[in-house]
């Protein structure tokens, strides 16, 4: 088999960041009638490029299959905290850059209109670009005009020819999902007005490493970025990053701010230099930092299994909360099925009645928890654990306890 090359700089990928074995596509949930059929499993092997330090997966399945076959299961609006984050972002952008009724806001990977709705409510023209037709349909029903396409140079040129260019171009949690990174960023440059601003949010590789967040590696996420690397990616397409914020979302994310290199304003924020120094201090410019991660992941797997084995040996009942992609990585990597976890629940009705890929754990409505009163509630989307603990506080009535597994096994009474 021919060796993979870096999706940014095209250097051969010869070093492993972490090998998580084989796993199904994380959002390929199963129906009851599919339980007697074979599933496709793919290598989940992350590499590190020694030239640009981009952590990445090889492309094992088409993006069309992963995102665009009409049955994509992720809808942003089912997380209250994520909606609050989106609303706060819209208010910050309006306050900081003065966007108004004469501005054009364009979001790439706009999902179900969870974010653009807040700009639209203020009378600011919006346009979403979303490849998953079933999700885009929900946005349209909210009154958010949405183009059903993957984004890149071709889509950008088509929209520009129709008179669509962005005063604010944004993409939250999409950069990692892009197999053709250079085509995507080149498209952003094309559709951005000469004095336009772009913002992009993505999980921060530094947090993934330091907080042992290996479960955020799955086939939808082709790339994992440090600021040092993402700055190079955008600079290669003549976009200058003038500011960056560290955010608590998704276990620790970055929000980068970009402009055309030729634009005089805004000036470069001191936070750019500060974050680069922080990453260099953490060793993100050194290969050895990346080569030691896999050992830590294997130790965590053993601790997770030890906890689950001990709990079951004491006849404790364990159920899950959530059916996120990260949960499917963790459960498949650790080999955890219904021998450990009876079922999981999710607020998203599009997942209820289905089964987790690979592990085939059934997904129910959250009311199921009150019915069975488990000893442990395992929070799979640990990034919103505070929201879930508040929502499910009633399990304490029967002395039920919460459990999170990342970065370490923690039982919360």
TrEMBL record:
Domain C-methyltransferase, by residue range, is: 248-407
What keywords were assigned to this record? Methyltransferase, Transferase
Q: Mind listing the GO molecular function terms for this protein?
A: methyltransferase activity
GO terms under biological process: methylation
SUPFAM superfamilies per UniProt = S-adenosyl-L-methionine-dependent methyltransferases
Superkingdom classification of source: Bacteria
InterPro entries with a match to the protein in the record? Methyltransf_Zn-bd_dom_put (IPR013630), Methyltransf_Zn-bd_dom_put_sf (IPR038576), MeTrfase_14 (IPR013691), SAM-dependent_MTases_sf (IPR029063)
- Occurrences of domain Methyltransferase putative zinc binding (ranges): 6-67
UniProt cross-references to CDD domains, sorted A to Z: AdoMet_MTases
Q: What is this protein called?
A: C-methyltransferase
Q: Which organism is it from?
A: Rippkaea orientalis (strain PCC 8801 / RF-1)
